[in-house]
Design goal:
Low-confidence stretches: none
Number of strands: 12
Oligomer: single chain
Largest sheet: 6 strands, parallel
CATH architecture of the domain at 7-160 and 188-215 and 259-278: 3-Layer(aba) Sandwich
Strand order of the largest sheet: 2-1-3-4-5-10
Strand content: 15-25%
CATH topology of the domain at 7-160 and 188-215 and 259-278: Rossmann fold
């Protein structure tokens, strides 16, 4: 007998990560996606009513106010969306006996540790974005042991342009592109994340806090340089194949503080799933060739 499909409800499905999950999981599961205006997680009064009228085995929260600088000025909105709403979603999922998969960030750390952070390391966010995301984590995990918080970093995927895409597009138009050379983290393939997390559709698999990203780490400049290299290999005609270095301190337009070292260890994820994340080089190559090689090929 074929295994019964899971009913998966994805919120924020127009986002880069959630949109990719919707695309990947729809091939094998019964997946529904919701986004504004059909569902606004900042409306805490309407949120439970809407979700209680729906049926799902897995609820995925891909919403959030992720503009770290805006979070410094729009603090009330950031607190509602990033901190309070996840708690409400966790309660709604618990009432249905469902698992909530909630996404968080490497920005819960201060970046002073020069090696990968594990789930056991104590968070210490530098800015209001990380502060609200950390509170959201706590509310989800305190509600139900079945629920999951998944920290990700530097996500790229097919449903919405990422840093890599924007740098490639700039290199197609401009003679000079640049990226920060002294901030380090781990790129994350949204499509790989879909494969890792589908393992947790099984309710017998332990919930809790997990880090999910591809293996290896880099600076923003190294990430951009690899994207440019792969785009050139894929056949795109670029005006430059170099990425000039700039320093984090020179980014005067940044309002919020950013952690310098925020690499994430995925040992716990591998132990739970048996899957070791592939290197970000490999994942980025697959993504760029799939997206850009058809563009560069003659029709």
């Amino acid at each position: 007998m074929a295994e019964k499909k899971k009913r998966v409800l994805i919120l924020g499905c127009q986002g880069r990560l959630a949109g990719s999950l919707l695309k990947c999981w729809s091939k094998f599961q019964e997946v529904t996606g919701l986004a504004r205006p059909a569902l606004d997680v900042s409306d805490l009064k309407s949120l439970p009513r809407i979700l209680d009228d729906l049926e799902f085995d897995v609820l995925v929260n891909g919403t959030g106010l992720t503009n770290v600088d805006r979070c410094e000025s729009a603090r009330e909105e950031a607190h509602i969306v990033n901190a309070l709403a996840p708690g409400v979603l966790a309660e709604c999922a618990s009432r249905q006996g469902a698992r909530l998969i909630h996404f968080s960030t490497d920005y819960v750390f201060d970046g002073k540790k020069r090696e990968a952070y594990s789930e056991e390391d104590t968070p210490s966010p530098l800015g209001f974005y990380g502060t609200t995301k950390l509170e959201g984590e706590r509310r989800v995990l305190e509600e139900d042991t079945r629920h999951m918080v998944v920290r990700v970093s530097w996500v790229f995927g097919p449903t919405k342009p990422s840093f890599a895409d924007s740098l490639i597009e700039r290199a197609m138009r401009e003679d000079r592109v640049e990226a920060i050379e002294d901030k380090f983290s781990c790129p994350t393939s949204a499509e790989d994340t879909a494969k890792w997390l589908e393992f947790f559709f099984d309710p017998s698999v332990e919930g809790g806090l997990y880090h999910a990203c591809n293996s290896g780490h880099c600076s923003w400049r190294e990430y951009g340089a690899k994207a440019i290299e792969l785009a050139t290999e894929a056949g795109l005609k670029l005006r430059t194949n170099q990425v000039a270095p700039i320093r984090l301190a020179d980014m005067k337009q940044f309002i919020a503080p950013r952690p310098v070292f925020s690499m994430l260890s995925t040992r716990k994820l591998t132990a739970a799933t048996g899957m070791t994340p592939r290197h970000w080089h490999e994942a980025l190559r697959e993504y760029i060739f799939k997206k850009y090689a058809p563009i560069s090929s003659p029709s």
